Amino acid sequence: MKKILPTLLPLLSTAAIALVPQLQSFLIAFVTAHPAWSSFATAAALILNHWLPSPGAAPSDSTIAKIGTSALLCLCLVSLLIFPVGCTVPTVLDTVIADIPIATDITLSAVNIYEITDGVKEPQVAAEIQQYSGELATDLKLLSTLLAEYKASPNDGVLQRLDAGFNTAQGHLNSLFQAFHVTSPRTQAAASSVFNLVHGVLLSIARLLPPDKSAVAPAAAQVVSRADAGGFPENVFKPKDLADSFNWQMRNLNLSVRVRTH
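^ that's the sequence the OP posted. Answer follows.
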């Protein structure tokens, strides 16, 4: 028994950490709350582990050897458990939240697009475009705030406000597109670019809402249902790709309007 104990003790301690969620939570919480002490303990275990095989060190089956090996294995396992927490891959929700400032800039560019495209410029039309683009930009900022709130604490109350905000934003986007009173193919293409890209971000927001919550978020559920029926792809742009797509379309239309990533 004494001969196999040095091998069993580290394995048992490692298995205990892996199999007992409460122990995992305690160790992770401790390391998170006390990074200095955790670093010291890790360094001490590494030094001890390095020191033990040297001449004159404690025998491999001694208590200090068992403690050193167990401590090293435990700390390594904790590091593996914590590493994914600190280096999480951005979720779809994170990407959509990051897209919203780009969509807001695209929305606000509608005024410049109208001013520099072809056709006779009407002050009333320019005023309508400025009004609706401003209202839509405000809607998008509110949606960003609500999505961050939903990420922190998903609940039906936030879902209802998200659905209401989504419905309002969709209405203002439709009004913005109609306000252009298209008079040339280039204006049509530019207005469509704004509409399609911003609508794509709104649709990404709608797809984030749980399908089983359609009663709580009916407006979003209806838009997703129509999109699915029409074969609209489930595509979420990364912020840079969203900005590049808009800029590329503006460049092809020989328009100087551009947006930048945040």
